[in-house]
Amino acid sequence: MSSTTLTHKPGGSSAKGTTTSRQLLHLNELGLLAAIVVLYIALSASAGGFLDTQNQLGILRDAASVGIPALGVTLVIIAGEIDISIGPAVAFASVIFAKGASEWHLGIAGALALTLVAGIAWGAFAGWLRARFAVPSFIATLGLWSALGGLALYATDALPVPLPASSFIDSLGGKFLGVPTPAVVFIVLFFVFWYLARRTAYGRSVYATGGNAAAAQLAGIPIRRIRVTLFATTGVLAALTGILLAARLGSGNGGAAAGLEFDVIAAVVIGGTALAGGRGSLIGTMLGVIFISVIANGLVLLGVNPFLQNVVRGVIIVAAVLANVIIGRRGNATRVS
Amino acid sequence: MTSAEPAPGRPAGPPVATATGLCKQYPGVRALDSVEFTIHSGEVRALLGRNGAGKSTLIRLLSGVETPDAGEVVIGGEPLGDGGVRRAAELGVATVYQELSLVPEMTVAENLFLNEWPRRGAAGIDYPRMRREAAEVLGELEVPVDPGALVGTLPLAEQQLIEIARAVRRRPRLLILDEPTSALAAEETHTVLSAVRRIADSGVAVIYVSHRLDEIRQVAGSVTVVRDGQVIDTVDVRDATTPQIVALMLGTTVQEAAALEPRTVDRTRTPLLSVRGLKLPPKLHGVDFDLYAGEVLGIGGLLGSGRSELLRAIAGFEPRAERVIEVDGARVARPTAAAMKKLGLGMTPEDRKGAGIVPMLGVGENMVMSWFGGVSRRGSISPALAERAGRDLVERLSVKTPRLSTPIVNLSGGNQQKAVIGRWLHARSRILLLDEPTRGVDVEAKQQIYRLVRELAGNGAAVVFVSGELEELPLVCDRVVTLQQGRIHREFTAPDITLDNIMAATMAVEV
């Protein structure tokens, strides 16, 4: 049992930090990277215009709307929880933002603040239900999914709410130094979350809570507070995504981002985060987000029937996760169960 | 003790199970070495031995869970061969394991017939018949439980009886009970014991694994002692004194090796921790004790005596508990977990795997997680500080690990335990509550843990050392109290801490 599973790297015997990983990428992340490279080669050969700058920037922008909430959902899943409320939360946030800026005369800044605070509030509420009353997070966020989606449509009669003209909104929906603004936000937030997960007490406590909540609690980690914070975080990220989406579309839409939660969860899980909790990485999530965004883009370019696209995506997602599980099992071969 | 009972210890009938020349090798361990074992119909045989002695392996071989490397198991005249659990069940072996395997949301009858529900028609279940037959089995064992009751609503002792009844329903020839009373409070055990006697009286051979000598004396005729993979002896329980049995279990070498160097503890000062009137029904009914800086206080008591609950209540993890706690003579107004931690109290749980380690995280991180602040600079964890802290602890505790980032689950039990203790050294705790710190740990690691605990106390910490393995208390403790029926029952200080004294005190349970 005094196993030396992880000593296969010769010369790596000097323990290299507690909180940094031994290697930059794990086996599954390398596999995912390879899969992305293969996709790029295949699509650039078969899909006309795939490598065009405009198309690549488009992929980046689409990746942002999956990726921004996926950062928070990664932490949620690492903590052994789940958040399925993302799609309707994004839609509702876009509605609040648009209404705040137009009908409610809050000004752009006011509408922005209101939307973000609202996102924190509903997320924290779901987290509180989980932490205080042990309501399974699947159920708490399912309730949120239904309620926020309903509110978004009820408040707008399913009609778009136009945003007032504003250069700030234009820049949110447009480009920053030639890169779509949402993509810039995503990349910045990626580094913030990567740091949060690796280098802060909060991030490490999230891992500990997901790995063994009882042990974490006995070690004095405030698991309730952490659970509330986790969902407040996904709430605010969904709100931010909704704002960016509204800025791009020029309006708030109660029916926007339908099904986004599935892409988000798929990206996180493809990235190697274990649904059982305790294990996962933001680098993996980043790669997972790129992976599914590239596939989605490629299928469109190839002119695949939209209904069939869903089938193909479903198969690819399951296959990717299956590959992950198999790799993960090999990596933990000597783990005492 | 049980003079009115039919003479125990004698073969009551023909042999039911015979094992000859059983050998079993695991990687690096010879778990069983040429074991001979015979049990007769109507006999209750206790199986006794320390953890890792080979009891569980013997049970696994008898019940077909594993096949021996050499030797043979014969049940009722038929060789078991490599037929596995299914064959063993056909031959009439039934095993009840320590962990309950009942479905709490189902009724007693449904549980008794789990997956063997009597059928009616194509897919229907014959509920009246199931209920009737369940009532029959329960009646035989004199278990006063309604077959229609939900298992989850029953007290633990009755759930244990249901578990046994489920095995008995299959009319086994050989019934193996693996510590059936370990989770029960002392008062609850006698119903289980009398059920076991009744089963044996009906002609079933019963193997009874337990660490509770008093129970063994009540229920078993003879006891087979296993040590280091060998059957050391089988003795009549009436003829053997407790120290004799203990000597058979322990051998001599280990205990002599680690005699305690005496040390004086100043108990005139203000105690570091003082507990008054700790109540947590149904297990604890008013526990009082003081703990002084520089001492190791042992708490002895059998499983189910409320030892773990006591520690959890002191550490603030049992909000229902009633208690007055003083640290350094000052009363703690609200002894919550956070407050107690801040006052320098740390607890390591009995269930190392379930509540101690975070399996996938590295060894280093498992230790610093009690106080990330100690390895942080300006709110961020510093890998350099974390590594230095981890290294120091690994060295101080001699944790054997390939590297700090090795997932702790890959370490041996002893090294995991040392790391879990290390967690509280990192948090600079002054009061350590260690719940079964040597459970499931090999002999060498045990010695290291004893030494570590002594050292910590020597440096001024106050340690509570809880153990169900009473034989280890004299090896580490400056003072021992025994817990019984929810209260502190006896107290022993240095020269009087002997195994005999402690055993006598914990086992003097009126049942």
From TrEMBL, chain A:
Membrane topology: Multi-pass membrane protein
Broad class of where this protein is predominantly found: membrane
Domain of life: Bacteria
InterPro entries: ABC_transp_permease (IPR001851)
Regions that span the bilayer: 30-51, 71-98, 104-126, 133-156, 176-197, 228-249, 255-275, 282-304, 310-327
One GO CC term on file: plasma membrane
Localization, UniProt: Cell membrane
Keywords tagged on the record: Cell inner membrane, Cell membrane, Membrane, Transmembrane, Transmembrane helix, Transport
Classification via Pfam families: BPD_transp_2 (PF02653)
Position of the signal peptide: none
GO molecular function: transmembrane transporter activity
Keyword Transmembrane (UniProt): yes
PANTHER family reported for this sequence: ABC TRANSPORTER PERMEASE PROTEIN YPHD-RELATED, ABC TRANSPORTER PERMEASE PROTEIN YPHD-RELATED-RELATED
Protein name, entry field: Ribose ABC transporter, permease
Organism: Streptomyces himastatinicus ATCC 53653
Upper taxonomic lineage: Bacteria, Bacillati, Actinomycetota, Actinomycetes, Kitasatosporales
Automatic annotation (TrEMBL), chain B:
GO molecular function: ATP binding; ATP hydrolysis activity
KW Nucleotide-binding (keyword) present: yes
Residues in ABC transporter domain copies: 17-253, 262-510
Coiled coil (residue ranges): none
Name recorded for this polypeptide: Ribose import ATP-binding protein RbsA 1
Entry-linked PANTHER family: CARBOHYDRATE TRANSPORT ATP-BINDING PROTEIN MG119-RELATED (PTHR43790), GALACTOFURANOSE TRANSPORTER ATP-BINDING PROTEIN YTFR (PTHR43790:SF9)
A family per Pfam: ABC_tran
Keyword list, A-Z: ATP-binding, Nucleotide-binding, Repeat, Transport
InterPro entries reported in the protein's UniProt record: AAA+_ATPase, ABC_carbohydrate_import_ATPase, ABC_transporter-like_ATP-bd, ABC_transporter-like_CS, P-loop_NTPase
